[in-house]
UniProtKB/TrEMBL annotation:
Gene Ontology MF annotations: 3-oxoacyl-[acyl-carrier-protein] synthase activity
Family from the record: Belongs to the thiolase-like superfamily. Beta-ketoacyl-ACP synthases family.
Alphabetical list of InterPro entries matching this protein: Beta-ketoacyl_synthase, Ketoacyl_synth_C, Ketoacyl_synth_N, PKS_Beta-ketoAc_synthase_dom, Thiolase-like
Stretches assigned to the Ketosynthase family 3 (KS3) domain: 1-452
Gene Ontology terms: biological process: fatty acid biosynthetic process
Name of the protein this chain belongs to: Ketoacyl synthase
Keywords, sorted A to Z: Transferase
PROSITE patterns: KS3_2 (PS52004)
Pfam families: ketoacyl-synt, Ketoacyl-synt_C
Lineage top rank: taxon: Bacteria
Amino acid sequence: MSVAAGWRDVLVTGMGFCLPGPNRTVCRTGDDLWRTVSGGEPHLDNDGLFYGRVHLGDEEFARAVPELDGRFRDYYSSVHRYGLVALAEACEDAGLDRHGTQLANAAVLTGRAGMDTALETYMEGVTGDPAGTSPAEARALLMRILLSVTATDVASVQAALLRSGGPTYSLSCGCASTNALLGVAARQIADGEVDLAVVTGVDAYSLDRIAHFEELRIASERTGRTSSYAAPTTRLRYDRPMRPYDERADGFNLGEGAATLILESREHAERRGHRAYGRILGQAIRRGATGSALTPDEDGEALVRAVHSALRAKDSHGRIAPSAVPVVNGGAEGDPLFHSMEFKALSSLYAPGPGPEPEREPELAEGTGPLITNHEACFGHSGAPLGVIGAASTLLMMRHGQVCPTANCEKVAEEAPYTVVTGGVPQPLSFDLALSFNYQMGAAAALLLAAPEPIAAAGGRL
């Protein structure tokens, strides 16, 4: 079987970021991202406080978007700033002039998981005293409220910078938001609704409010009631690093920032003569079929269904078997609950046994399974950006012919069914198909990524 090329193929042609970088710098470009993930380098330690903080100063922000009227900069919250920086970098990487008309009809789509910045502005407005506020202060607060208190805030700000008249909205399904949104944008392009889509995930968190919620959690445990699932309860950690897939994993570190991908039809990209990073072949999200809004999908069954849906046959290719996909960029976050779920799903997906005959020859020897990696410990569990970060790092691994090590994983958990790449150096591997996973409460999302070129029946590129 082969994966053919067509004019409505969905290519990734640009990437940009506003993420924690080394030594209080900002990770902004694909090269910046690669330098971090290729060595599994974490940027979470803030003098003993483990949190992925973005150190974006006013001057760096102003340089990134110099066309932005200085009168408005003070109205923008951290998520607006992060989203605009990531957008500017992605446009430059894609060779698109954001000041002209190239993006006039682009879809501008954002994923959001947390609403801390909106809540802070909202509460400032609710508790403000109109009688004791000057007209100038009242106007400034009103502007911040109008810009910040809806889930579409970053999408609106980005679309205004681009002067885009295309579809503009936000999607929220937790930490799987941009994995799902990449699927939405890909379908818009494949259907001919748009030729270009800008997909951004952005979130920031209030550590004070989260600390308050943690105090509530501790108080609630005094009831003596425990969770209904077998794995240890999910824990947020600030005092030590997160360790995905490690036998010592006991919680996750939060992070903040933004990540943007430019998606483009093959016809549009080739007309511009721009090289692509890769191609989105499929995406699916599935929920565990439980009667609880809070119970996680412990057995991984939802992820298994999501992967099979992402691998389903399309006009360009027949059904792809999991064994034809040699690399998995997982969604584990240093939490035993998600490790267990993901390991069970991978064991089911890659286990030898009878099944429908795939139309693509397997790349993996029976029973060997994929190489597994994860980069959340580089930047922290950042919520909505995770889907874009996972897709970008996977495509960079594909381009470089290397599978990057899992950050902070030193002693792989015994229950890992297949090889987890560790050791601080990437493992060489030429591959043209990969899966990237992300999770939300009770559900799992799978994204199938491919090399930009057509793929031959034997697995090589044409």
